[in-house]
Amino acid sequence: MNFHEISNIDIIYRQLNDTVFPYPKDKTICQLFEAQVEKTPDATAVIFGEEVLTYRELNRKAGQLAYALHQNGVEKNGIIGLMMERSLEMIIGLYGILKYGAAYLPISPDYPEKRMEYILSDSKPGCLIGQSKTIDKIIGFHSKCINLNDEYIYELPEYSYADYARPNDLMYVIYTSGSTGNPKGVMVEHHSVVNRLNWMQRRYPVTHDDTIMQKTPFVFDVSVWELFWWSITGAKLSILKPGFEKFPQGIIEEVERSKITTLHFVPSMFNSFLNYIGSEDYTAKLLSLRQIFCSGEALTPAHVKKFNTLLGQKNGTRLTNLYGPTEATVDVTYYDCPGSGEIIKVPIGKPIDNTAMYILGESGLMPPGEKGELCIAGVGLARGYLNQPKLSDERFVDSPVCRGARIYRTGDYARLLPNGNIEYLGRMDNQVKIRGLRIELGEIEARLCEHEAVSQCVVVLKDVESINPVLTAYLLTADSSLTDKKMKMFLRNFLPDYMVPNHYIIMDSFPKTMNGKVDRNALALLKKSKE
After folding, report:
1. Full 3-state SS string of 302-340
2. Are 97 and 103 in contact (CB under 8 A)?
3. By C-alpha distance, which of 376, 372, 348, 378 is closest to 360?
């Protein structure tokens, strides 16, 4: 490659990453929320069924929780765990933790006990907050517990404090699947979230006339924009009742009832939703929907075409594809899908504000059309992994492109298209996604190998291109009595259900590649008759 070619590639990436835009970098999410409370104190903030909170009421109740944390001697600027179902109390818990100047740690009440034990022993939260449905479980884990269904909290004064959290302080820690057998906690700071939401508001503005649906489990980072975007713009939040996210009819009813304007789907669920509304004409019930965002999995041309037919062309709803890892604050690229015409592919698009995307190979920046590893730079990068400096140093590295900057190595293959959009090409390692949930196959394999009868195992994702891909575990064992039921029961002691394989196949040996490694592709292609 000559100097002229290198210069052209450099220019291409400079144009791609011309994303500098001002944002309130001196503010935290809590400060922006309180500024909105001052503007619209009596406006509706949160809806949950028949229950409603105004901005003033939410601010007061969050302040009362902050006082309860102070009363319990909880350390400021630390981590506070929140174990709750979707509810008004969950929102009060999140905003109360932030008003206290701490970072929130979301924990699913459905996590297996051993997973909870690991997360809590690793993060060492100063307090656990729950509700009546979860408090019994919480009491067994921590000496300092607060039940947000206790009426005494809402008789307390509001917490009076001299200083807020700072923009570079932690806002949340979210645990994602880890390849070592244990999840890893991603640490994200306030200013990163402020930038992400400021970009979203600038690109897709919401006002007091808008209502955002909150349906993503708060242990996944997509929930972050659902939980906080509305609160700094004067919009409303409608909380979908727990479990309803699995049923298109429940989503449709809530869209119609609360006049939802903004909604998120993982593409696999989006497909089910589109099939459902297409089976009978439900489009009239979805007239309020202005914009739908998809992320977490690959959005396909078939999805977009079906959407355009059912919602885009009939109701004028817009569809946007988002991409981003937890380590870079939710989303880092966007692509506004065309409303008509032939759709060949759906790229992940271009970088958001104050974000740079690089496709790197062994020789450096890859020219358009060439595959490489997708790397991210900018203000959205997480601080790193909690208590894992070595892993942080492996994934968050010095930029080979921009001296003094840091980049996050995603482990995703991508290429730059001639039109300046980025195309996602799959994973470089053994990480997969099912229904938008990120899974390290190595974590499942590590747990399977802890079974006394399993000498070696490999987990693969089968039927990747189908609507319902499944995890299948291949085992080397001398115990022929191992059954799917037995192995599922074993794994459920450690892993959430979405990480438990559907099928378990006992093998005599594993197919190997030329260099002697297990051939995962061959396993994935095994015919059902073999299984």
Report:
1. HHHHHHHHHHHHHHCCEEEEEECCHHHCCCCEEEECCCC
2. yes
3. 372
pTM of the model: 0.88
> How far apart are alpha carbons 265 and 173 in whole angstroms?
23
- Do residues 502 and 471 make contact, with C-beta atoms less than 8 angstroms apart? yes
Give, in order, the Cα–Cα distances in Å from 373 to each of 214, 236, 354, 395, 414.
Answer: 32, 39, 20, 12, 6
- Render each residue's pLDDT in the chain as its tens digit; 531 residues: 444 455 689 999 999 999 999 999 999 999 999 999 999 999 999 999 999 999 999 999 999 999 999 999 998 889 999 999 999 999 999 999 999 999 999 999 999 989 999 999 999 999 999 999 988 888 878 779 999 999 999 999 999 775 678 999 999 999 998 766 789 999 999 999 999 999 999 999 999 999 999 999 999 999 999 999 999 999 999 999 999 998 999 999 999 999 999 999 998 889 889 999 998 889 999 999 999 999 988 888 888 999 999 999 999 999 999 999 999 999 999 999 999 988 888 999 999 999 999 999 988 999 999 999 999 999 999 999 999 999 999 999 999 988 889 999 999 999 999 999 999 988 888 788 887 888 888 889 888 988 888 878 889 998 766 667 889 999 988 888 899 999 999 999 999 999 999 999 999 888 876 555 678 888 888 764 344
Q: What is the rounded CA–CA span in Å between residue 342 and residue 178?
A: 39
Q: Where in the chain is the domain with CATH 3.40.50.980?
A: 23-189
Q: Report the topology of domain 23-189.
A: Rossmann fold (3.40.50)
Task: Please state the three-class secondary structure of 28-73 as a single string.
Answer: CHHHHHHHHHHHCCCCEEEEECCEEEEHHHHHHHHHHHHHHHHHCC
Task: Name the CATH superfamily, with its identifier, for domain 3-20+354-427.
Answer: Luciferase; Domain 3 (2.30.38.10)
Q: Which two tokens stand for residue 171?
A: 């806002």
